[in-house]
Amino acid sequence: MKTKPIVLIAVIFLALFSEKGLAQELELSTGITHKFLMGKQNDFYSPALGIELAAGRQELAPFSADMITWGLNVGIFRMNRISAGEEDSTGQYQQLITTKGTYRYDYYYNDFFSFFYGADAGFQFITPKSEQPMTVPANNGTRIFTRAVVAPNVGVNFEFNPYVAVYYKLQYEVGKYFGEQPLWGSPSSKWNHLLTNAAGLRIKIY
């Protein structure tokens, strides 16, 4: 069970690169992402820090000099449980692996700055874990829970040259569990909301 998310990431990236490998404009990016839970779940989990990898194809937008990018984003995160004085919750966390399709529209202000807006949509796979294996509930520790997510976003790019840029992204993410959800501190609602800050590097291959 533990290897399935890693295998899934490998298969998706292989499929994407085989499809985009001959594209004239391919963008690769990586960034550090900070996810902050909103609502009731904020009482149970601390903000998550992780890494996102993305690959996409860039195309010139119709009737303008702006760019459209679409592709795939994969993220790996760890979200620690807040103990709130509970000894049995020490060291418990959720491992989150996210796979999303992405769309982005870049509006160029000048040769160096561009502003963008877009949206991601896909699935998040959650596995409850613990640094103390004996504290993992039997019906949680060997399971992978699935959540659908939609995430509109805005941000800015700074381009050093046509091939290398850095970016900042602000994103609102809404998600809903399919079926059951992890038991650790779960409110009754299967919906959750997150605010995401991300920054990283983009590399373009023409």
From TrEMBL:
Organism domain of life: Bacteria
Protein name (database record): Outer membrane protein beta-barrel domain-containing protein
